[in-house]
Give the backbone structure.
Amino acid sequence: MGFTEASALQRCKEDAKSVTNCQNAASVQGVHALSELKMGIVLQARGGGHRVQDGDSIVSCHVRGKLKKDRLYTDLIATGDRVHWRPIRPGRGVIEQVLPRETQLSRLRPGPQRIPLEDVIVANPDQAVFIFAIRDPEPHLRLLDRLLVIAENNELPAIICANKIDLEDDERSAHDMFDLYEQIGYPVIYTSARTGQGVGQLKERLLGKLSVLSGPSGAGKSSLLNAIQPGLGLEVREISEVTGKGRHTTVSVRLWPLDGGGYVADTPGLREAGFFDIDPEELAWHFVEMRPYLSDCHFSSCTHTHEPGCAVKVAVEAGDISEERYDSYCRLLEGQ
Ligand code: GDP
Ligand code: ZN
């Protein structure tokens, strides 16, 4: 069981971003002069033992006591963290080091002395994939806008998947709904889990990356995951049913390894994520198409709602910014 140092390094080579991590691993191993220190990724952070991937099996790891003093204002270990760990007995290990996070999907909450504490939902995500159906259920694009703001706030590239394209007689109208997002720079993949259309394209986008998935239930996420990797969607759904709806804030997210490399994390609770860590003055920045206008408003503290000389409102009136997106902006600003 377990992968050797050589295969761990090989795995990392497949992931260009990890090359420096591997170099770190090598030097840490030099310091400890121990052969059994391994690289791993936390598939799920949880109190009773963090689930760390060890080749095809999973090891339950606790954290070396001295590490617990670090990272006072963020989670010590989060799903997606890359760690160096040491086996202690079959199926059990101890995490010796957590590598610095390159990216994160997180939210802030008020802590002692008003210093915000960070809840990390997923560490080291490469991208967010938002799955909506073009029909059944009707796409709720204001929800999509909300999710895109969360992605922008976390500086995560976002991809939109418009599923159930088979339900459209005239494919054009699905494009009418989502073209706007392509125009402002978000890739849109049109898929059908039923016919397989676009599934290969989606798979290609997921392979080798850590992707955070979200979207309304019923949009076809499980079906798409099953189409990409038989059984995966069923597994993901079973687990989210066991952990219970509405409790996603207390149950940590899991990573699901993809056969060809990469991971997906299902974050159904993301849409309920609060916005308290987004400064109202920053909100417009998270609407990417508003960015070029923000420095042209008359007032530097412009909220782009009622102020005279607002460049954003002029752009909306001229049709350069869509009214729907502007409406989403106003609703989010009001805390809706
Ligand atoms: P989830 O809640 O997002 O995981 O959605 P499911 O995968 O459970 O799909 C919800 C319903 O939509 C099921 O009845 C699926 O059979 C159906 N469905 C999923 N994908 C498609 C699709 O591409 N086309 C059509 N016509 N139905 C789909
Ligand atoms: Zn303005």
